[in-house]
Specification:
By secondary structure, the chain is mostly helical. 74% of the residues lie in helices and 4% in strands.
Length: 278
């Protein structure tokens, strides 16, 4: 494959990854890392570095559209990002101390757990359930647009959500997925945000998380411009398209796209690890 063909393949593959990342709140990293490692034969650490750059671009492309349309809960995003960035810095330090196979196994576990959690129906809240005291203090409750008009929602379990966000930041630095996997789960299942609010708020947050991790990878020389540049450009274009499509897709369909995507990536990575191909 010539250098030009390699760049073009990366560009168009990342376009699709950015599109799916914008729809599911994952930022595209959950597709980009397996794509680079399994299809293009890129070293796992360089794939993570390129994915983090792409996640920053994806977040920048989709976040503005989601905020304008009224889906993103900015107050929640800013509050939880503090824990996520701290986790990202810790995770980037740990990433230098563990093997590539160990990182891949962490990634696979996160993928399967995320798919299971997304498809399992959440236990219903009591009709009179009140938001946490922290939610009241920071005025985290909000509304989001639907075909029937604006719908109000309350925010629950903020401290537990913050703890999961710390883990999300570590995951971002270890495997380059922008930590959207854990963020969407935390906001959707633990904090009980509507799924579209969870995915859009995740997109709002993941750029900052990825930037904290990418700085460490850049300092180590594990971000290759020839790989990261086309990946970031493709992911940015895909995220802009995804942001326009999201309001017209049903939540149930989003959950199946999310689950199917991560299961496929998890199976392929696990097969490669067991065969010693990383």
């Amino acid at each position: 494959m010539t250098a030009l063909a390699f760049v073009l393949f990366l560009l168009f593959a990342s376009l699709g990854a950015g599109f799916l990342g914008a729809l599911t709140g994952l930022g595209g990293g959950v597709v980009i890392v397996p794509l680079l490692v399994l299809l293009f034969g890129v070293d796992l650490r360089y794939a993570v570095g390129a994915s983090l750059v792409a996640v920053i671009a994806t977040s920048s492309g989709a976040a503005a559209a989601y905020v304008r349309e009224g889906y993103t809960n900015i107050r929640i995003g800013i509050l939880l990002e503090v824990a996520t960035v701290i986790g990202a810095i810790v995770g980037a330090i740990i990433a230098a101390l563990v093997s590539k196979d160990a990182i891949a196994i962490v990634f696979v576990i996160a993928l399967f757990w995320s798919a299971y959690s997304t498809l399992r129906p959440p236990s219903p809240l009591p009709p009179d359930a009140e938001p946490d005291a922290i939610s009241k203090k920071f005025r985290l409750d909000s509304t989001y647009p639907t075909k029937e008009g604006m719908v109000a929602y309350k925010v629950h379990h903020v401290p537990l959500g913050g703890l999961l966000m710390f883990g999300a930041g570590m995951l971002s630095a270890l495997v380059g997925v922008g930590s959207g996997i854990v963020k969407v789960f935390a906001m959707d299942r633990m904090m009980r945000l509507p799924f579209k609010v969870s995915t859009t708020t995740s997109n709002f947050m993941i750029g900052v998380t990825a930037a904290a991790s990418a700085g460490v990878y850049l300092q180590r020389g594990q971000i290759e411009p020839a790989i990261a540049a086309p990946v970031a450009l493709g992911a940015l274009g895909g995220s802009l398209i995804g942001a326009r499509v999201l309001p017209h897709i049903k939540t149930k369909a989003l959950r199946w796209v999310f689950a199917g995507l991560v299961i496929f990536a998890g199976i392929e990575l696990l097969r490669r690890v067991l065969q010693g191909g990383l």
